[in-house]
Amino acid sequence: MQIQIKGVRVIDPGNIEGIRDIRIKDGLFEAVSEPGQLPDVAEASQDVNVIDGQGLIGVPGLIDVHVHLREPGQEYKETIETGLKAAAAGGITAVCCMPNTNPVNDNAQVTAFILSQAKKVHAARVYPVGAISANLEGQKLNDIADMKKAGIWAVTDDGMPVTDSQLMRRTLEYCKSLDIPVLVHAEDKRLADGGAMNEGLPATVMGIKGIPNAAESVMVMRDIALAELTGARVHFCHMSTAQSIEAIRAAKAKGVRVTCETAPHYFTLTDADIPAYDTNFKMNPPLRSDKDRAAIIEGLADGTIDMIATDHAPHAEDEKQVEFDQAAFGIVGLETSLGLSLDLVTRGHLTLIQLVEKMAKAPADLMGINNDIVPGNRADLTLIDMDTDWIVNPDAFVSKGRNTPFTGRSLKGAAAFTIVDGRIVYTRSSSF
Ligand SMILES: NC(=O)N[C@@H](CC(=O)O)C(=O)O
Ligand SMILES: [Zn+2]
Ligand SMILES: [Zn+2]
């Protein structure tokens, strides 16, 4: 299949910013030219898919470095197929899947299984992340070198912190020698102490046990110290607090090799927005105060926060339709991420170029892949319609998960086309 995109505004930071015609062939970008320079499609062969790029923005395929696909083992929540299709519907061309499946992705067989399942699906790509410790138990280090050979690009015990600082030091030394990053779920379980939402007035009013900011930031500070000690690459997942951002800002200024992500809910919502006992607003880390939300936006704007990832965490209805403190932590995010993130541009917090850096370029840098829109590179591309107004309706989600706090929210901007490996894997229908 060939694709020709005419007159699209391309934003590929550091490479292109302007109107271009793009030709895609055999999975690769074949030509990227100033408008009017490509031969007319009528001259080309019949199987050319022509897209009128007018009014659309073309960006390198969006990459989400933090997604829970739930397969193997919890296919009732999500499968690799539904998750990768949901990603495509959200304009995301590649996802990194967390290892907290059942069995855990703590060995090369599970990694190979995930890759083989993904191969059957024509949607987003998958980049598996392996577990640090056997069964995420924080005791025994896995054979990370073997998993790397099978296809992982990073490790994490996400969902669980690595409580043992010595094990974390060994992990960082091991991963430094393999040149792969360690993704940190920063949580001090003793400080979190079984809490279910942010510690503060809203929790007190609802009578729900709170989780203090320090439950996150003390572990961020510990792992900055260990990154400094070992020289390893540390990436902090789902940052939610002002104190974490302050610590990472200082670490970067010192030259410590750390990066971090936040998720759309942390720059969009606060604990004061949680309707009484609504478990679709429950996730880990929890929604914080307005001061934290402001610090997250500031961190995105000044570059302290490198990227936006969803922490897409689908759960079944019966895991959410229980008392707040009993409900599963986590919300879905793949299909709302772009719309919510574009709001940062609308509100003037980020430029569109900065947003593309946070949703496509910085993730690629972390993973060591090149997603520039240049001839010869494989064609992963997201075409964004900035003007489309739509309302979040979980019943229309491609994901099996319906657990979103954004039901009924009006958003502006969405993926019009998602192209992976030179194939259109998603086209937005006009019925939205
Ligand atoms: N974020 C969540 O609230 N839940 C995640 C685990 C995690 O990301 O820590 C999950 O797997 O459900
Ligand atoms: Zn986590
Ligand atoms: Zn997660």
UniProtKB/TrEMBL annotation:
<keyword id="KW-0479">Metal-binding</keyword>
<feature type="binding site">
    <location>
        <position position="100"/>
    </location>
    <ligand>
        <name>substrate</name>
    </ligand>
</feature>
<dbReference type="GO" id="GO:0005737">
    <property type="term" value="C:cytoplasm"/>
</dbReference>
<keyword id="KW-0862">Zinc</keyword>
<feature type="domain" description="Dihydroorotase catalytic">
    <location>
        <begin position="59"/>
        <end position="242"/>
    </location>
</feature>
<dbReference type="GO" id="GO:0004038">
    <property type="term" value="F:allantoinase activity"/>
</dbReference>
<feature type="binding site">
    <location>
        <position position="284"/>
    </location>
    <ligand>
        <name>substrate</name>
    </ligand>
</feature>
<dbReference type="Pfam" id="PF12890">
    <property type="entry name" value="DHOase"/>
</dbReference>
<feature type="binding site">
    <location>
        <position position="315"/>
    </location>
    <ligand>
        <name>substrate</name>
    </ligand>
</feature>
<keyword id="KW-0378">Hydrolase</keyword>
<dbReference type="GO" id="GO:0006145">
    <property type="term" value="P:purine nucleobase catabolic process"/>
</dbReference>
<feature type="binding site">
    <location>
        <begin position="329"/>
        <end position="330"/>
    </location>
    <ligand>
        <name>substrate</name>
    </ligand>
</feature>
<dbReference type="GO" id="GO:0008270">
    <property type="term" value="F:zinc ion binding"/>
</dbReference>
<dbReference type="InterPro" id="IPR004722">
    <property type="entry name" value="DHOase"/>
</dbReference>
<feature type="binding site">
    <location>
        <position position="158"/>
    </location>
    <ligand>
        <name>Zn(2+) 2</name>
    </ligand>
</feature>
<feature type="binding site">
    <location>
        <position position="158"/>
    </location>
    <ligand>
        <name>Zn(2+) 1</name>
    </ligand>
</feature>
<feature type="active site">
    <location>
        <position position="311"/>
    </location>
</feature>
<dbReference type="InterPro" id="IPR024403">
    <property type="entry name" value="DHOase_cat"/>
</dbReference>
<comment type="function">
    <text>Catalyzes the reversible cyclization of carbamoyl aspartate to dihydroorotate.</text>
</comment>
<dbReference type="GO" id="GO:0044205">
    <property type="term" value="P:'de novo' UMP biosynthetic process"/>
</dbReference>
<feature type="binding site">
    <location>
        <position position="66"/>
    </location>
    <ligand>
        <name>Zn(2+) 1</name>
    </ligand>
</feature>
<keyword id="KW-0665">Pyrimidine biosynthesis</keyword>
<dbReference type="InterPro" id="IPR011059">
    <property type="entry name" value="Metal-dep_hydrolase_composite"/>
</dbReference>
<feature type="binding site">
    <location>
        <position position="185"/>
    </location>
    <ligand>
        <name>Zn(2+) 2</name>
    </ligand>
</feature>
<dbReference type="InterPro" id="IPR050138">
    <property type="entry name" value="DHOase/Allantoinase_Hydrolase"/>
</dbReference>
<dbReference type="GO" id="GO:0004151">
    <property type="term" value="F:dihydroorotase activity"/>
</dbReference>
<comment type="similarity">
    <text>Belongs to the metallo-dependent hydrolases superfamily. DHOase family. Class I DHOase subfamily.</text>
</comment>
<feature type="binding site">
    <location>
        <position position="311"/>
    </location>
    <ligand>
        <name>Zn(2+) 1</name>
    </ligand>
</feature>
<feature type="binding site">
    <location>
        <position position="68"/>
    </location>
    <ligand>
        <name>Zn(2+) 1</name>
    </ligand>
</feature>
<dbReference type="InterPro" id="IPR032466">
    <property type="entry name" value="Metal_Hydrolase"/>
</dbReference>
<dbReference type="InterPro" id="IPR002195">
    <property type="entry name" value="Dihydroorotase_CS"/>
</dbReference>
<feature type="binding site">
    <location>
        <begin position="68"/>
        <end position="70"/>
    </location>
    <ligand>
        <name>substrate</name>
    </ligand>
</feature>
<protein>
    <recommendedName>
        <fullName>Dihydroorotase</fullName>
        <ecNumber>3.5.2.3</ecNumber>
    </recommendedName>
</protein>
<comment type="pathway">
    <text>Pyrimidine metabolism; UMP biosynthesis via de novo pathway; (S)-dihydroorotate from bicarbonate: step 3/3.</text>
</comment>
<feature type="binding site">
    <location>
        <position position="238"/>
    </location>
    <ligand>
        <name>Zn(2+) 2</name>
    </ligand>
</feature>
